[in-house]
Design goal:
FAD/NAD(P)-binding domain, Elongation Factor Tu (Ef-tu), domain 3, six-stranded antiparallel beta sheet
């Protein structure tokens, strides 16, 4: 049997290849690293997490992200399996040891008898003899492949900037000032209710911090980057600071649910750090993605009480992400309308976030495997998180104003007669019932 070709071994490509081979269909996984590196990647490992180490909320009762986690677990997701195995304390969030996570996925794929790894750059459209290919090259798709896709579709690729938060060595944090606590002392599956390091700011310190961000030097955009819009869900801190004095205090620096044990009061604002590796030696600054020059980052961030002597394993950065106008270009099976043998998966389809990228990879792999085996392609219902996300990017969104989207309950059909928090819970319960029915139907179609 000819393989399904998967281009790119990031989260989406790794998940797609895994889903393909679970059906007994072979997969050829093409990855250009380490032969050709990107501006953001640091290793040759599969599914490398280049920004945060968090897959966000793991609450499957009240949060759409947690619902998507659970649906993917039930669909035998490699990404969720690796994340669960290498999870770190992060309250109700699913955070992972990024190195161990990548190693787990790399080993699973390299060791699978139906996966062929091909280390090569695909700099043009897949050849015609590949009758089933999944392009999962991510937000940093090579310029040559972007150009080839643009020539085929007649569409200019849309682009936005995504950002990387700094990582701090734990032993350089002053715990005479900083303290451990999750908001509202909330515990999670791998947490204790004291999973974040918190550094407080009083009002004067916060105002001075915002003023410093507003006047700091940022790195220069390259010519081709200057007209690229930011993604509103992942703004650099200096951009947030420029939008208003209190934007940060009601965003990543919000102090709600936190009490400084030294004062017994809630601080005016707070910087939170989340564990980044299993040893607990590295902690990332939550929501502190930035385009500030490295010298400015160290200068300004060391004005924060508790971080005066901070040592940075990695400073923040910014890179351009590229994505398709999926509602216009892709059909409901993630196939390019002008060339159905070619599928797309991951962030290049216009989803935002690690989890969402892996989810679209999961669907692309399942669809391609079903077609290769001659079985009916069964789409997930729109009442599920998987189906809601798929429907959004493949026609639910307005093609004229299409922008990247995280999973959220606004993409789900409402449950009649239910409102507020109970409505979210009702949608979550319905989604998990419906995803089980969908998975069962897909199994029956394959038999």
């Amino acid at each position: 049997m000819d393989p399904v070709h998967v281009i790119g071994a990031g989260l989406a490509g790794s998940e797609a290849a895994w889903q393909v081979v679970q059906t007994g269909v072979p997969a050829a996984l093409h990855e250009m690293r380490p032969l050709v590196m990107t501006p953001a990647h640091q290793t040759a490992g599969f599914a490398e997490l280049v920004c945060s180490n968090s897959f966000r909320s793991d609450d499957a009762e009240n949060n759409a992200v947690g619902v998507l986690h659970e649906e993917m677990r039930r669909a035998n997701s490699l990404v969720l399996r690796a994340a669960d195995k290498h999870r770190l304390p992060a309250g109700s969030a699913l955070a992972v040891d990024r190195e161990a996570f990548s190693q787990e996925i790399s080993a699973a794929l390299r060791g699978h008898p139906l996966v062929e790894i091909r280390n090569e750059e695909i700099g043009e459209l897949p050849p015609g003899e590949w009758d089933s290919a999944i392009v999962a090259t991510g937000p940093l798709t090579s310029p040559a492949l972007c150009e080839a896709i643009g020539a085929l579709t007649g569409e200019e690729s849309l682009a936005f900037f995504d950002a990387i938060a700094p990582i701090v060595h734990r032993d350089s944090i002053d715990f005479d000032i900083a303290w451990f606590q999750s908001r509202y002392d909330k515990t999670g599956p791998a947490g204790s209710g004291a999973d974040y390091i918190n550094c407080p700011l009083d009002e004067a310190e916060y105002r001075a911090f915002v003023a410093a961000l507003r006047s700091a030097e940022t790195t220069e955009f390259r010519e081709w980057e200057r007209n690229t819009p930011y993604f509103e869900g992942c703004l650099p801190i200096e951009v947030m600071a420029s939008r208003g004095e209190d934007v940060l205090r009601f965003g990543p620096m919000k102090p709600v649910g936190l009490i400084d044990p030294r004062t017994g009061r809630r601080p005016y604002a707070v910087i939170q750090l989340r564990q980044d590796n299993a040893l607990g030696t590295l902690w990332n600054m939550v929501g502190f993605q930035t385009k500030l020059k490295h010298s400015e980052q160290t200068r300004i961030f060391r004005t924060i009480r508790g971080l005066e002597r901070a040592r940075f394993e990695r400073l923040g950065g910014l890179h351009r992400n590229t994505f398709l106008n999926a509602p216009r270009l892709l059909d409901e099976r993630l196939r390019l309308k002008r060339r159905p043998a070619l599928r797309f998966a991951g962030q290049i389809t216009g989803v935002e976030g690690y989890l969402e990228s892996a989810a679209i990879g999961l669907l692309a792999g399942r669809f391609a495997a079903s077609e290769r085996s001659g079985n009916a392609v069964v789409l997930p219902p729109s009442t599920t998180a998987l189906g809601a996300l798929l429907r959004h990017i493949c026609g639910g969104a307005n093609a004229q104003t299409f922008q990247p989207m995280n999973i959220n309950f606004g993409l789900f059909p409402p449950v009649p007669g239910v409102r507020g928090r109970e409505a979210r819970r009702a949608m979550a319960r319905r989604a998990l019932v419906d995803v089980d029915d969908w998975l069962g139907g897909a199994r029956e179609a394959a038999e």
